[in-house]
Amino acid sequence: MIDEPTPILELRHITVRYGDFTAVDDVSLALPKGVALGIVGESGAGKSTLARVAAGLIAPTAPGTGSARPGTGSGYRGMGSDRHGVGPDRDPAPRAEILLDGMPIAPIRRTRAQRRRIQMVFQNPDSSLNPSHTVRRILAEGMLLHGTLGPHPSHERVDARCRELLHMVGLGESDGLGTAVAAGFGLGPADLAPRADLDDILDRRPHAFSGGQRQRIAIARALAVEPDVLIADEPTSALDVSVQRDVLDLLATLRRTRGLTLMLITHDLGVVNEICDEVAVMRGGEIVANGPAATFFHSPLAGYSGELLDAARSVALPGGAA
Ligand SMILES: Nc1ncnc2c1ncn2[C@@H]1O[C@H](COP(=O)(O)OP(=O)(O)OP(=O)(O)O)[C@@H](O)[C@H]1O
């Protein structure tokens, strides 16, 4: 038997309650290294809550003993929520666990090294960008805190890394993000934007940028600490349609070129079809199906996953999965 590699991030028996309301209900999920996992589902399904637990922003609640909701099984694997199939020998209150490289980590009081490895990009970039800080400070803060440039790096070294990050997210390119993404970051010195332009960007504050540019800065901020896992929660839904594609291409490129493991929360099945290898479908706080994207998009699906896919097809999947 071939051993499965240890997932880089694993959530076990995660339940989150807000008062009496259960937003996430005993969810287990494994994220293999280098994989892009799309988490889809209707509004209020618990996607963001689960993402925040994974990112260490909120703690899971100890699982309760509430009755299981009816499952919505399909031919697709439906193993995400462990309330399905409760048996007589099953522990009635399994302990919530979060594992990084197979090692349990504290839900929110993580070590600095653990925090560095899992970064999150939010729907609204403004939530992660301090409006009174320059882009230079926004990018430098994490790398100095986490020592990614070694102890006491010079200003020149920090600035050079900040400029590199701007390139990485396509800021400073004369013709915008598309060039950098298309080139897969194989930019030679001749392709680099003039240093003065980049320094000008670094000196500015977030309000001086468009929504799409701010989201690129937020992605650069996350990358500044060289994470292994990037959790992106609806990273394009607050952006103009015209720049959504650029930001998604950027995420896909980053994943490919930097070996990032990606957890992408989205309503958009077309995006999942294009970017993700794995899909988890959430409904009512549970994962009702999960498995390879190819199966999800190309096999007949029963139950909720099928309904979701049909609904997406009816509004035309941009990724052409129909
Ligand atoms: N801080 C909170 N206090 C109380 N209820 C909350 C809180 N955060 C989320 N909820 C509720 O938990 C449920 C799940 O919310 P969550 O944001 O995780 O869903 P979602 O699938 O990400 O939805 P959307 O796609 O609309 O963002 C919703 O009913 C929401 O109203």
UniProtKB/TrEMBL annotation:
Per the record's keyword annotation, is Nucleotide-binding included, yes or no? yes
Record's keyword annotation contains Transport: yes
Q: What InterPro entries does this protein map onto?
A: AAA+_ATPase, ABC_transp_ATP-bind, ABC_transporter-like_ATP-bd, ABC_transporter-like_CS, P-loop_NTPase
Q: Give every ABC transporter domain span.
A: 9-309
The record, for PANTHER family, names:
D,D-DIPEPTIDE TRANSPORT ATP-BINDING PROTEIN DDPF-RELATED, TRANSPORT ATP-BINDING PROTEIN
Q: Which family does it belong to?
A: Belongs to the ABC transporter superfamily.
In Swiss-Prot or TrEMBL terms, this protein is called ABC transporter ATP-binding protein
- Which species is this record about? Bifidobacterium santillanense
